[in-house]
Amino acid sequence: MPATNRAVFTRRRALGAALGTVTAAALSPAATAAASAAPPNRQIRQIRQIPLQGAVNVRDIGGYRAAGGGRVRYGLVYRADALSKLTDADVTTLDELSVRQAVDYRVPLEVQYDGADRLPAGVTGVARPVSDNGLYAHILTAIASRDPVRQEEMLGGGRAAAFMRSVYPMFVTGADNRARFAATLHDIAYGGRGALLYHCTSGKDRTGWTTYVLLRLLGVSQRAAVDDYLASNTFRAAYDAKLRESLAQSGAMRNPDLLVPLQEVRTDYLTAALDQVVTDYGGLHRYVTEGLGVDRRTAALLRARLVC
Fold first, then answer.
1. Are the C-beta atoms of residues 98 and 257 closer than 8 Å to each other?
2. For residues 260 and 55, what is the distance between their CA atoms, to the nearest angstrom?
3. Distance, CA of 134 to chain centre
4. Residue 22 has pLDDT above 90, yes or no
5. Strand boundaries in 154-267, DSSP class E
6. Which of 5, 119, 152, 219 could form a disulfide with 123 if both were Cys (CB 3.0 to 4.6 A apart)?
């Protein structure tokens, strides 16, 4: 991005960018390639990323080994970041993947700043907002202040990471949140033909939790489910670094690295949710059966449909 363009980086785009809003222009071709590249380790190599121009964290959840020797099928469930900046070619790619339903976990403020999903004709878009505990608004406020002292007060000294750890337990305690995660699992089980995609803004927290729970429900190992969760850091790294650079160049933030704990996923964030699961339900099984209302029939349908 030329320096002159960075200097005139608009307030709205800067605010959206800080939270991972995907725009094709925000990354150079080299940075996009870096964001799409997988590191040379076993866990990332088996992940099937869907390369798009307008989103960087779109993946097929298939390929993982499940209990009993089967594997999660490819081509039925996809996880993603925001779809609002998809190109025409990206929309065609989604159509070729036979996606028939796209579940959007973003709250209205996120949709206001990022824009509505761009979807192929025939895909049913479902607004299913899951609370972010005011995270998006908190970051918008910090960036809009353009005040490095205020930004440090809001995000520095471990406060950004602590905020993230406050978000995750709400995936467990919030009745509305549980109902929306549950609805997505039921849609996957009873959805019939075609694939389902679910997403939030960065495709890492609400989307990451959904995927973790689903993979564990299918009998995927704890290690593999955590690896999938953490893989967002790999797929988003170059893009998020470019966003921080843009904020610095525009003068919106003197220290954009304050955003790093918000852009990343970390095991202690996931642990915050899992600790809440133990507190409220005694374990993941009861969270799924009682908290999400996934009965034996639904669990059996999920496994029959998704594991081969």
1. no
2. 19
3. 16
4. no
5. 195-199
6. 119
